[in-house]
Design goal:
Length: 187
């Protein structure tokens, strides 16, 4: 069972890499650059830093730094200084990058297969989420969970609020990934 599951994950990963290499709109981007763009499109404002990208991708600072420079040179990301800490840099996707991701993600072959699976696709998504949380609970790996499932996620005056940073959140933040995420189970 474990071996078969591992084989399936490996095969799906290799199909994703092939998709990345062969997609005409992604031909000039390396897989790591595509992964960085996808992460930046899904993470919140506490997580869109070079360190956040580095931790999420699990690569060295130097490798990520080179990739971010390449993305900036292509006009796909912009650096912004944090309002309250001028040493801290945040990375924002440009309109061009957002259009690109809208056209390519999720991969068409994956979306079509999930659509053919109908309701079972939802169950699969739940099970994959459960598997990820199980690994995150048992291993020393960065959380990067969805804000709405964090133990610090609160509601104040009908709007989401972060109990860790003591700052209000926007409605869409609940669906974004955060590097400070802490699961409910460890509260
Ligand atoms: S509630 Fe948790 S996941 Fe959401 S912003 Fe705060 S620390 Fe991050």
């Amino acid at each position: 069972m474990t071996s078969t599951f591992f084989d399936l994950l490996e095969r799906l990963s290799s199909l994703m890499r092939i998709w990345n290499r062969q997609h005409p709109l992604l031909a000039e981007l390396q897989p790591i650059q595509v992964s960085a763009l996808i992460y930046l499109s899904r993470c919140n404002r506490y997580s869109n830093t070079p360190l956040g990208v580095t931790e999420y991708l699990g690569l060295t600072k130097g490798t990520v730094s080179q990739s971010l420079k390449a993305l900036e040179a292509r006009g796909l990301i912009e650096k912004r200084q944090a309002l309250h800490d001028r040493r801290s840099v945040h990375l924002e996707l440009t309109a061009v990058a957002r259009e690109l991701l809208e056209a390519v993600a999720p991969p068409q072959f994956l979306a079509a297969a999930l659509s053919r699976m109908g309701e079972r696709a939802q169950l699969l998504e739940q099970l994959f989420g459960e598997l990820l949380r199980e690994i995150q609970r048992a291993e020393d790996v960065p959380g990067f969970g969805l804000c709405q499932s964090c133990r610090f996620h609160q509601q104040r005056n009908g709007l989401p609020f972060c109990g860790l940073t003591e700052q209000p959140l926007q409605s869409r933040d609940a669906q974004l990934i955060c590097r400070e995420h802490s699961p409910l189970e460890v509260a």
